[in-house]
Amino acid sequence: MCRMPRYFVYMLLCKGGTLYTGIARDAEARFGLHASGRGARFTRANKPTKIVYRERKRTRSTALKREYAIKQMSRAAKLILIENSRLKNR
Fold first, then answer.
1. Is 2 a residue whose pLDDT tops 90?
2. pTM score, two decimals?
3. Superfamily of the domain at 7-88
C-alpha cells in the first residue's frame, strides 16, 4: 500500500503582529527553520513567534493552491480563519 505524501499549509504569527503563510511537509520543523533565521526572507526580518494555523493537504499541488488562496485573503479574513480553526480544534 502506497502512502500519500502530506503537506501542511501553515500561518505563523510574527513579531509586530504580521502573519506569514507557507507550506511544508513538517510544519513544526519548518517553524524551527524560520525561528532560527534560516527560513524565508520575510521571517528573517519578522521573527515568528508561533504557528497559529495549520491545514493538511494530500498533495503539494493542493497545498500550493490553498497557500495562494490564503495569501489573497485580507488580514481580517485570515484572522477569522485562524479563530475558526481554534474553535474547531477544542
1. no
2. 0.89
3. GIY-YIG endonuclease (3.40.1440.10)
